[in-house]
Hints:
Blueprint: H1 8-29, E1 48-52, E2 56-62, H2 71-82, E3 87-90, H3 96-104
Parallel strand pairs: 2-3
Antiparallel strand pairs: 1-2
Amino acid sequence: MSVNAKSGSDRTDTKEKHVEQKLVTAVKAAGGICPKFVSPGTDGMPDRLVLFPEGRIGFVEVKAPGKKPRPLQARRHEQLRALGFPVFILDDPEQIPGIIGEVMK
């Protein structure tokens, strides 16, 4: 194996980062912000917050195309939904307008 060869995990990370950057750019263009969400001590939290004026908020779990949340992530998402927060799984840039529309409602 070549030293320069990317592992499958590296390619997945690159695809996920590509989807994530498209989300950040689209949210900003729509008048919001999309900060990275880091919650020390609380594993499984979604990757990004989507924030718009008038207190509109959504959580977004970004995945590489075709990938699904891990079981811990899925449980955390259900916990957030039970509290009334919208949680979205994003694995395709085509989903971004729909997510933005839902958060802005």
